[in-house]
C-alpha cells in the first residue's frame, strides 16, 4: 500500500503542499464572491460610531481633614496623620474609602474626619 501511494505521488507531478495545476485551466485567486471585480470597502466605514464624552461620575469626592492620627489595622486600611487632607470616595456607616495625596486608596474610620 505504501509503495502504491508513493508511486501515485510521483505520477501526479506535484507534492501535497503545492497547488495542483489543472490542464488548460488557470486557477485564479477566488476570494471575491461577486464576479464584478469591485473591491469591497472596509467594514469599519459602514459603522460610523462617534466617540462619546466620558460620563459625569455619580458621586463626586468630598475633601476632608483628619482630626487625629490613625494607624492602619488591616491590609485594606491606610494610615493617616492629623491635619492630612484626603478625598472621600465612598462613605459607609463606620468607614470611608479615601484617596490620599500620594494616590494611595484605602479605608479609614469615619470618626477620624472633620467634614
From TrEMBL:
Bias (Basic and acidic residues) ranges: 1-18, 39-51
Organism of this sequence: Caenorhabditis elegans
Cited Gene3D superfamilies: SH3 Domains
Annotated stretches, region: Disordered: 1-51
Protein name as annotated: SH3 domain-containing protein
Taxonomic path: Eukaryota, Metazoa, Ecdysozoa, Nematoda, Chromadorea
SUPFAM superfamilies: SH3-domain
Amino acid at each position: 500500500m505504501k509503495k502504491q501511494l508513493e508511486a501515485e505521488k510521483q505520477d501526479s507531478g506535484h507534492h501535497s503542499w503545492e497547488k495542483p495545476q489543472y490542464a488548460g485551466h488557470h486557477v485564479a485567486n477566488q476570494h471575491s464572491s461577486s464576479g464584478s471585480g469591485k473591491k469591497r470597502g472596509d467594514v469599519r466605514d459602514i459603522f460610523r460610531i462617534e466617540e462619546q464624552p466620558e460620563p459625569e461620575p455619580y458621586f463626586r469626592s468630598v475633601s476632608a481633614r483628619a482630626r487625629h492620627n490613625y494607624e492602619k489595622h488591616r491590609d485594606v486600611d491606610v494610615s493617616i496623620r492629623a491635619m492630612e487632607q484626603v478625598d472621600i470616595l465612598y462613605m459607609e456607616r463606620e468607614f470611608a474609602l479615601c484617596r490620599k495625596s500620594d494616590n494611595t486608596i484605602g479605608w479609614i474610620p469615619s470618626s477620624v474626619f472633620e467634614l
